[in-house]
Amino acid sequence: MIRYLDLILRLAIWFLLTADGSLANIIIGVGIALLLPRSYTAPGALKDWLRALWGIVVAIPKAYIEAVEIIFRPHNHEDVTMERVKPQRTPGLIFLDIFLITFTPKTIVLKYHEQGWYEVHRVRRRQPR
């Protein structure tokens, strides 16, 4: 089941990059998705994939809310923090985690450290002291 989710993720990235639904593009996308090397680290559990997909569904309205907040209430303070990667994440799940963090307007992943950390840039409102 995880291999199918990995294949679907690769095809989704391909179609987002090419924005072409022609038969030739579909054949090329399937071919590339099948030829890309597979990761043979610990297999991701179906539960982790479902949580990541649910996170995408939740991130869409959150992104709109944050965009409106930034428009009407200026965010002029910046932080760079380190966030721990969840244990036993496959490369596909790490990609989805980075996508979710970067999808919202207030955060962006600057770097993924191989030791298991994301370097995250955030904008926020300065808290009164």
UniProtKB/TrEMBL annotation:
Q: What is this protein called?
A: Cation:proton antiporter
Positions of transmembrane segments: 12-37, 49-72
Keyword list, A-Z = Membrane, Transmembrane, Transmembrane helix
The root-end lineage is:
Bacteria, Bacillati, Cyanobacteriota, Cyanophyceae, Pleurocapsales
Q: Which residues form a coiled coil?
A: none
One GO cellular component, as annotated: membrane
| Xref: Pfam families | MNHE (PF01899)
The Swiss-Prot or TrEMBL record annotates one GO molecular function as: monoatomic cation transmembrane transporter activity
Classification via InterPro entries: Cation_antiport_E
